UniProtKB/TrEMBL annotation:
Signal peptide (from-to): none
GO cellular component, one term: cytosol
Enzyme class: transferase
All copies of domain Malonyl-CoA:ACP transacylase (MAT), residue ranges: 5-296
Active site location: 90, 196
Keyword match Acyltransferase: yes
Record protein name field: Malonyl CoA-acyl carrier protein transacylase
Entries under Pfam families matching the protein: Acyl_transf_1
Native species: Paenibacillus larvae subsp. larvae
Amino acid sequence: MIAFIFPGQGSQTVGMCKGYYDKFPEIFNPLFEEANDTLGFDLKKICLYGPMEQLTETSVAQPAILTVSTGISRVLASMNIRASMVAGHSFGQFSALVEAGVLPFNDALRIVRKRGQAMSQVKIPGSMLGVVTNTREKILHIIEEAKPYQIDIGAYNSPTQVVFSGASANVEQFQKDISQLPGVKVRMLATSQAFHSRLMSEMVAEFMEYVHSFPMQRARIPIILNCSAEKTVDEGAILEDIKLQCTETILWETTINALLDAGIEHFIEVGPGNTLTKLCWLFQQNISVFSTETPMKLKKMAELWKKEWKGECTDV
C-alpha cells in the first residue's frame, strides 16, 4: 500500500513548481487560475518568481504550498498512482484533506488563507526552532532543558528531531544556550509565527468559526490525524484535529509509525521540497520513500510502479 504525505510551511521556495508548470501546463495552468481567482492576487507569479519575503508570509505560503501539492497529486493521478492513505505534516494536513475528498480545492484555499491571516495577526512575535541530535536520549534531555524557557514542542518529527515553538525572544535565547552542546544541531525554520504553540490560542475561535461555514465530507481514504496520530475517515474527528493543530504538538513520528503499522509499504512526499523524505530515512534506512520535488524524480517512481509495485502506471 502507498501513503501520500504532504509537507507543511517552511517547504516553500521561489520557483518550487517551475518544472511541473512547464511540463504539465494542462494541470497547473487551470489550478493557478482557480487559486488566483479565489485568493484575489497572482499566486502563480509569487510561486514562480518571488520575492521570497512575500512567499514566506503565512497568508501566502500556505495557499502556495497547498496549490503546488494539489497540482503534483493531480500529476500522480494522471499517471494512475494513487494513495491508500494520506497524512500531512502540520499545515500539509489541508493538502491531505483535498486528496482524501474531505474538502474541494477552492474551499481549502479559502480556509488556509483565513488560517494564515489569523495566524499573522497574533500579537506576540513567534519563532520555531528545529533541533536534531545523534541519539534519542539526547533529544529527551533537550526537551527537559527547554522547560524553563516557556516554549512549546511544536512537533515530534522523528526519534532524533524535535521542533520548538514560542515567543521569538525565548526561542532565540534557547537556541543560543543549546547551540554549542555536542551532538546537537539547531536551525531556525522559515516560518513567520510560532505555530503549534500557546501563542496561537488567540486566533482559534475566529478561525474555527470560519471553518465551520464550510461543509466537509467523509474522507474517501483514511487520514492520520496530526495531534493524535489516529486513523480516521470521520469528518467530525478531522474538524477537531484542525482546531487542535493550531496550538498543540504535531505527532509526526507517531504518524509515520501508525502508517507503517497499518501496512503502508511506500511513502510518496507530494509537494515542494524533500523534508518529509529525509525525515522518513531517520526511521528506517531502507524505508521506501520518494520525493516529488521535481518532475525528473517521477521517472524512477514510474519505473518502480511498473516493475515492483502492484499497479499500472502511465509514462511521465
